From TrEMBL:
Gene3D superfamilies: Acetylglutamate kinase-like
Annotated EC: 2.7.4.22
InterPro entries: AceGlu_kinase-like_sf, Asp/Glu/Uridylate_kinase, Uridylate_kinase, Uridylate_kinase_bac
Protein name per Swiss-Prot or TrEMBL: Uridylate kinase
Gene encoding the protein: pyrH
Activity regulation information from UniProt: Allosterically activated by GTP. Inhibited by UTP.
């Protein structure tokens, strides 16, 4: 007998870079499939899953505008990049037999569904994985903020932020071997100490709605499922 998962509905946020494997750019299908398997294993626990995937493996608004492009145009390109990642993840999940919907903040009805909140909730109730694409639909935001927004709208109990390391550290654990991982940390400490969790507007939005952020390693096989089953190491960001 499995213990009941600690959460009934969660949102998994991953960066676009999580999908590029060891390449410097774009999509690495075996990596996409590996993450899809992690998602499937959590879905099998009966957890309802939302996903938000960044676009940084394809395009980032800030780098576009640094090259002279208008910021808003560059941001729209970044949002379109997230749609490509969402479609790749949908394809991988469907290959594993997981029903999935891509739901875009910018209408593109031939490609995916538009965002209609009640419809998305219904998909979740039917155990379909909902991948929210195109960020918030607005320039000057990030997919971290989009993740927090959608997690609130979908009444998720937590955001799971999958990263390369198993939590939030006081300094970069890749550069400093003496870095210390926090078991828990407050939103305010994240903001005051500039800890690398999510950008400030996303953390503030989570704080204002008391939405916990679980930072964990996506590189750890079975890690996502383990946390939902009450195991593993991670950092819980809370009020
Ligand atoms: N973006 C945006 N509005 C949003 C979400 C994203 O304009 O609500 C754009 C922005 O240009 C950003 C890009 O999409 O640089 C890719 O998203 P993000 O940088 O969050 O991706 P990640 O770093 O998670 O891969």
């Amino acid at each position: 007998d499995q213990p009941a998962p600690a959460y009934k509905r969660v949102l998994l946020k991953i960066s676009g870079e999580a999908l590029m494997g060891d390449q410097g750019f774009g999509l690495h299908p075996p990596t996409v499939e590996r993450i899809a398997r992690e998602v499937k294993s959590v879905q099998e626990l009966g957890v309802e899953i939302c996903m938000v995937i960044g676009g940084g493996n394809i395009f980032r608004g800030l780098s576009g505008s640094a090259q002279g492009m208008e910021r808003t145009t560059a941001d729209y390109m970044g949002m379109l990049a997230t749609v490509m990642n969402a479609l790749a993840m949908q394809s991988a999940l469907e290959g594993l037999g997981v029903y999935t919907r891509v739901i875009s903040a910018i209408r593109m009805d031939e490609v995916c569904e538009p965002y209609i909140r009640r419809r998305a909730v219904r998909h979740l109730e039917k155990k379909r994985v909902c991948i929210f694409a195109a960020g918030t639909g607005n320039p000057y935001f990030t997919t971290d903020t989009a993740a927090t927004l959608r997690a609130n709208e979908m009444a998720c109990e937590a955001i799971f932020k999958g990263t390369k390391v198993d939590g939030v550290y006081d300094k970069d654990p890749v550069k400093f071997p003496d870095a210390v991982r926090y078991d828990t940390v407050t939103y305010d400490d994240c903001l005051a100490k500039h800890l690398k969790v999510m950008d400030a507007s996303a953390i503030a939005l989570a704080r204002d709605n008391n939405l916990p952020i679980i930072v964990f390693s996506l590189d750890e096989p079975g890690g996502f499922r383990g946390i939902l089953a009450g195991e593993g190491t991670y950092t819980r960001v809370h009020g």
